[in-house]
Design a protein that fits this description.
The structure is a single chain. Helix content is 48%, strand content 24%. The chain has 152 residues and is α+β, with helices and mostly antiparallel strands. Strand 1 and strand 2 form a beta hairpin.
């Protein structure tokens, strides 16, 4: 069992180094705990219990800390300010050919229509969402009709 716990610990450390996602660090520590239990003369059942107990405890203790640290790295881009705004189509939006651009507040964005229909140049559109670097839009007339029917 000594070799099993050493092998598992090495595998979990290598997996962690490859993924860099904090998915197996806790299991490496659990394998270390099971190895110590083995060296102290514990039976196989106790070693497995120590492995799972140490892994779970490490996970529960460190997960909130990891969340705090990783959430600090989020960089707001202000791009979401576009959502709900009205833009003007400056290049016809055609999802099938992968074309379309809109101008919103002086910035030019690639755009796709939400329902797949073509939107001609010069038409006003409402920005529904952002997917990657593309704005998902619908004609402003559709938005106004939908808003009017909800109010009734």
């Amino acid at each position: 069992m000594v070799y099993l716990w050493i092998a598992l610990m090495v595998v979990f450390i290598v997996l962690e180094a490859v993924t860099v996602q904090l998915v197996s660090t806790w299991f490496a520590v659990g394998a270390l705990g099971a190895l110590v239990a083995n060296l102290c003369g514990a039976g196989t059942g106790w070693q497995i219990t120590v492995f799972f107990a140490v892994s779970i405890i490490c996970l529960l203790i460190t997960k909130p800390i990891v969340r705090k640290i990783s959430s600090k790295n989020i960089q707001p881009t202000n791009a979401d300010r576009c959502i709900g705004q009205t833009a003007v189509v400056i290049e016809e939006i055609d999802n099938m050919s992968g074309k379309g651009q809109v101008n919103v507040k002086g910035a030019v964005w690639t755009a796709r229509s939400s329902d797949g229909r073509n939107v001609p140049k010069g038409e006003q559109v409402k920005i529904l969402s952002i997917e990657g670097v593309k704005l998902i839009v619908e004609p402003a007339a559709v938005s106004a009709v939908a808003s009017g029917s909800e109010e009734r």
